[in-house]
Specification:
About 20% of the residues lie in helices and about 25% in strands. By secondary structure, it is α/β, with parallel strands linked by helices. The chain folds into 2 domains: about 60 residues, no CATH class; about 120 residues, 3-Layer(aba) Sandwich (Rossmann fold), CATH 3.40.50.410. A hairpin with a 2-residue loop joins β3 and β4.
Length: about 180
């Protein structure tokens, strides 16, 4: 973790090395994930063995052809049935799944009275659609556990960029757990 130069060290950002392709030593490609402001890395300076090297152009992960690996956490608490968040969330996720490129790794977690991984990460969009349609409202309070289960699906596979998409009405009913399940 680091604080970008020129900023007060009040906020810390995380940088993760995702992939290095050094097949051609004169043309090395590095993919990293940074959770701060994109402007912080727009003028990236790189040194190798104490010598400045041309960093080239910094591009977003999508432009670097690094596919996402997404897990949908769908709040299935009883409140989402009363306010139509569950039915509208299903429609939105179906539309997003249909718009994603074939081969995108997708998973589904439901979070109502309990959290359950109902579709492991895979590239079968029809299986993800079926899992989303099978979600029914029940109980309340497992939202944070659902986020933890979704995060637990992601392996340290640098060929993907992990993402969690959370559909909720914001009524979790419980505080976040302090178990390692929710911390990744």
């Amino acid at each position: 973790m680091f604080a970008p130069a020129g900023r007060r060290a009040v906020q810390w950002w995380r940088i993760s090395l995702r992939r290095v392709d050094s097949t051609d030593a004169k043309n090395v490609h590095v993919v990293f994930q940074y959770d701060g402001n994109a402007a912080d890395v727009s003028n990236l300076k790189v040194t190798e063995n104490g010598k400045a090297v041309d960093a080239g152009k910094v591009v977003a992960a999508i432009d670097a052809k690094t596919p996402p690996q997404s897990s949908f956490v769908i709040d299935s608490s009883t409140s989402t049935d009363k306010n139509a968040v569950l039915s509208e969330g299903r429609k939105a996720v179906h539309a997003l799944v249909a718009a994603l490129p074939q081969g995108t790794q997708l998973g589904v977690v439901t979070a109502g009275g309990e959290a359950a991984l109902i579709q492991r990460l895979n590239d079968r969009q029809a299986a993800v659609d079926r899992a989303i349609d099978a979600i029914t409202p029940n109980g309340d309070g497992a939202l944070w556990e659902g986020v933890g289960r979704a995060a637990g699906q992601f392996a340290d596979d640098a060929s993907f960029v992990p993402m969690i998409v959370l559909i909720t009405d914001g009524n979790s009913g419980r505080a976040p757990p302090t178990t390692p399940l929710a911390v990744r």
